[in-house]
Amino acid sequence: MYAEERQQVILDRARARGRVDVAALAEEFAVTTETIRRDLTALERHGVLRRVHGGAIPVERLGFEPAIATREGVMTTEKERIAKAALALLPEEGTILLDAGTTTAKMADLLPLDRELTVVTHSVNIALMLTSRPNLTVMLVGGRLRSRTLATVDAWALQALKDSFVEVAFIATNGLSSERGLTTPDPAEAMVKRAAIGAARRCVLLADHTKIGNDHFARFADLADIETLITDSGIDSAVAEELEAAGPRVVIV
């Protein structure tokens, strides 16, 4: 097995189990512990694992919020599939909201050129991505800018969303579970996400399977607030049924 193949398996193990152990991996792959440590170091440099004593934990399981540059390199293929599937839920015309997030950013990049839409967003990078599109009117929500997510938050953002109405909001999340609903590490970000959901006729959640089962500090929505969840095929079928029973239609791509 090549190093790249072994590292992919290690990453899959970490995401499935929540943690991997150096000694156990060395035994499983019949390699030295030093080889496994090099693998973990390589994965940490890619921003998908964080080294801990004796092993590693996937970044999705950590209590801190990874920077946007780190998250952009994680689950890219799955996020692309989710973003493409979300295009089917766009209205023919009118106003949509794109929440701050790496999957919603991929959707922004894929928005069709032949549809007249107004796009409301509190994500600076999404707004900049769309400024050159002649068929789109971009409404950037103001407020304090969080450098970690490039999203605007606090009172200005909340007031703008309170006075807005959109046909559909495409929402991102750091975590979701049937017990806790939708959660994110930062309370200010949670308040804006809650306001975005409140401004929409219907809400679509874009979340790859690594977000499912994770609970973060600040809850901003219940699953019943979401009409459709689009996720990837890495989700366990029993978990998908459990989430669907809590409210949203689950679309697996």
Explain the overall architecture.
By secondary structure, this protein is of the alpha/beta class. The protein is 38% helix and 25% strand. The longest helix is centred in the N-terminal third of the chain and has 15 residues, at 3-17. The mean pLDDT is 91.
Mean pLDDT, all residues: 91
Reading the helices and strands in chain order gives: HEHHEEHHEHEHEEEHEEEHEEEHE
Please, how many helices? 10
- Uncertain parts: none
Strand content: 15-25%
What structural category characterises the helix and strand content? alpha/beta
**Strands in their spatial order, largest beta sheet:** 6-5-4-9-12-14-15
Shape: elongated
Q: How far is it from the N-terminal to the C-terminal residue, by CA?
A: 29 Å
| Count of individual beta strands | 15
Largest sheet: 7 strands, parallel
Oligomer: single chain
Name the helicity range: 25-40%
Task: Round the Cα radius of gyration to an integer and report it.
Answer: 19 Å
What attributes characterize this protein structure?
253 residues; alpha/beta; seven-stranded parallel sheet; three-stranded antiparallel sheet; elongated; repressor; DNA binding; DNA-binding; DeoR_HTH; transcription regulation
